[in-house]
């Protein structure tokens, strides 16, 4: 301290030294013992009430035995000169060509009781392929379980055990009311250690991790590890707000990024699996895509929202209701569609045969249509029409927006492997670095509509683009079809 004072005196004089010395006691106080910050209240009582409702699920599966069951055993990689090198060489030499012997593997997961009669919920991937399923309870009881039903799309399964006494069940919460920052409690069986409790908060809602068509996960920093799969995520009222399903981790251990299927998604699926042994989802019969900023601009929308209809199934309920490509679905059954991925989940949860109102944006106006929802056939494949269009006679090639276009001739159908019923204008080349190239338009794509009007020739495309420019439109909305007939919308800036 004396050396510091002399230095300051030389540089800034006595006033500077006085200021430093006056601040010194504050600095000393700041380095003293800190007052302990109050943490969250203990969750011991809550955990003790819930832990008997959480179970460990153990499965066994037979693998190997030749054929497609698994690869033949391979010689392990050993350092040259190791004492065991000769032994393993001889062992694998004698077994060369021998099929792998059948053997059993086991895995562990978690689950929870939703009905005292013995109904248990877990993840589908916990029991997938299992020959035997055993449920281990907190009091040490072990019971064999029967699979009631499962749903791969949301990774859920429902099991049934036959208890000798009533079990302690828990209820689903209204996860739609869950807010970022809410405390949550995870109970599971990480790494086979047994019942383990971890505490954290909701980090985010409505996460899409590209695991299925109905992704809307709750993200939490409550520690979730291997073996926690299928276990419950509780709110502070002791109700199940989510089902722990996945983590992001480079090591396989928790790094504070875990994902749970929300109760609002899980509960209807569980009810259907219990009632029918399968899911019975609603079906609208449309192909949709995201409304991007440039697409919204081309449609005259103030902001990007809703789900853009790119195609309508001929056999689906949307077609007789009057929905068409280019419509933007803004509301479905009274629920706002903020973005594309909201719609499939809401439609799937809609009861079959229910009549619902669908609010769409068409040509700048909101229109309400009534649709009777049908049941989704998960194995259904779209059928192609048999109509044979009249072949145009050698239409000229036209250039616009970085595209070279031609009418659809037999030569073009053969060259780009277009469907027999393909109609529109085929793209024959795309200028490198053009906006069309940036939007991944390729030779062989077919332009079906421009500015929500059907085009049948390159001349139609040019005329429609001219009309859009005259009207002051900055983005041209193109409806494209690939060789397989799959539709998508692309917005290109008019130059």
CATH class of the domain at 175-276: Mainly Beta
Multimer state: single chain
Poorly predicted ranges: 1-36, 66-70, 380-395
Question: Which architecture of the domain at 175-276 per CATH?
Answer: Beta Barrel
The termini sit apart by 71 Å
Mean pLDDT: 81
Class computed from helices, strands and strand pairing: alpha+beta
Give structural notes:
The chain is of the alpha+beta class and 495 residues long. It is built from 11 helices and 28 strands. Strand 22 (398-400) and strand 23 (403-407) form a beta hairpin. The strands form 5 sheets. A 7-stranded antiparallel sheet has the order 5-4-1-2-3-7-6. Strands 22, 23, 24, 25, 26, 27 and 28 form a 7-stranded antiparallel sheet that branches. Strands 8-9-10-13-12-11 form a 6-stranded antiparallel β-barrel.
Can you describe this structure in just a few lines?
This protein has 495 residues and is of the alpha+beta class.
Structure keywords:
21% helix, Thrombin, subunit H, 11 helices, 7-stranded antiparallel β-sheet, Pdz3 Domain, disordered N terminus, 495 residues, 28 strands, alpha+beta
Secondary structure elements and their pairing?
Blueprint: H1 2-30, H2 44-50, E1 54-63, H3 85-94, E2 103-115, E3 119-122, H4 124-127, E4 132-136, E5 142-144, E6 146-151, E7 156-160, E8 183-188, E9 196-207, E10 217-220, E11 232-234, E12 240-247, E13 258-262, H5 263-276, E14 282-283, E15 286-290, H6 293-298, E16 307-312, H7 318-321, E17 328-332, E18 335-336, H8 342-348, E19 355-362, E20 365-372, E21 374-375, E22 398-400, E23 403-407, H9 410-416, E24 425-430, H10 435-438, E25 446-450, E26 453-454, H11 458-470, E27 475-481, E28 487-493
Antiparallel strand pairs: 1-2, 1-4, 2-3, 3-7, 4-5, 6-7, 8-9, 8-11, 9-10, 10-13, 11-12, 12-13, 14-21, 15-16, 16-17, 17-18, 17-19, 19-20, 22-23, 23-24, 24-25, 25-26, 25-27, 27-28
InterPro entries: PDZ, PDZ_sf, Pept_S1C_Do, Peptidase_S1_PA, Peptidase_S1C
Signal peptide: 1-36
GO molecular function: peptidase activity
């Amino acid at each position: 301290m004396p050396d510091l004072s002399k230095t300051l005196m030389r540089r800034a004089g006595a006033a500077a030294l006085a200021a430093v010395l006056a601040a010194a006691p504050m600095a000393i106080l700041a380095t003293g013992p800190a007052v302990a910050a109050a943490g969250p209240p203990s969750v011991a009582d809550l955990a003790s009430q819930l832990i008997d409702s959480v179970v460990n699920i153990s499965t066994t599966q037979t693998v190997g035995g030749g054929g497609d069951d698994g690869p033949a055993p391979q010689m392990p990689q050993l350092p040259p000169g190791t004492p065991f090198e000769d032994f393993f060489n001889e062992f694998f030499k004698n077994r060369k060509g021998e099929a792998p012997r059948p053997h059993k593997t086991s895995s562990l997961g978690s689950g929870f009781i939703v009905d005292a009669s013995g109904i248990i919920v877990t993840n589908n991937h916990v029991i997938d392929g299992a020959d035997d399923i055993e449920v281990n309870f907190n009091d040490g009881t072990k019971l064999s379980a029967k699979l009631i039903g499962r749903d791969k799309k949301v990774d859920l399964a429902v099991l049934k055990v036959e208890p000798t006494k009533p079990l302690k069940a828990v209820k689903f919460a209204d996860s739609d009311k869950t807010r970022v920052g809410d405390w949550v409690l995870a109970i599971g069986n990480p790494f086979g250690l047994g019942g383990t409790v971890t505490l954290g908060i909701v980090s985010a809602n409505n996460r899409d991790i590209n695991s299925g068509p109905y992704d809307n996960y709750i993200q939490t920093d409550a520690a979730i590890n291997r073996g926690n799969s299928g276990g419950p995520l509780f709110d502070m009222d002791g109700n199940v707000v989510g089902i722990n399903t996945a983590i992001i981790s480079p090591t396989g251990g928790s790094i504070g990024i875990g994902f749970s299927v929300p109760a609002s998604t899980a509960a209807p699926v569980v009810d259907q699996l219990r009632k029918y042994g399968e899911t019975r989802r609603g079906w609208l019969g449309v192909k949709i895509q995201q409304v991007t900023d440039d697409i919204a601009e081309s449609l005259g929308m103030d902001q990007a929202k809703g789900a853009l209809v790119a195609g309508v199934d001929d056999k689906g309920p949307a077609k007789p209701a009057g929905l068409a490509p280019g419509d933007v679905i803004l509301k479905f059954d009274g629920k706002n569609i903020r973005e594309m991925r909201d719609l499939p989940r809401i439609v799937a949860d809609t009861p079959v045969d229910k009549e619902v109102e669908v609010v769409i944006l068409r040509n700048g106006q909101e229109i309400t249509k009534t649709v009777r929802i049908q049941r989704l056939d998960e194995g259904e494949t779209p059928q192609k029409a048999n109509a044979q269009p009249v072949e145009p006679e050698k239409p000229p090639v036209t250039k616009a927006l970085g595209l070279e276009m031609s009418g659809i001739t037999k030569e073009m159908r053969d060259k780009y492997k277009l469907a027999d019923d393909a109609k529109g204008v085929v793209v024959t080349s795309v200028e490198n670095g053009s906006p069309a190239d940036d939007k991944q338009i390729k030779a062989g794509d077919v332009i079906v509509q421009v500015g929500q009007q059907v085009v049948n020739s390159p001349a139609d495309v040019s005329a429609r683009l001219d009309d859009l420019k005259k009207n002051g439109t900055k983005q041209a909305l193109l409806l494209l079809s690939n060789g397989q007939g799959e539709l998508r919308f692309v917005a290109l800036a008019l130059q």
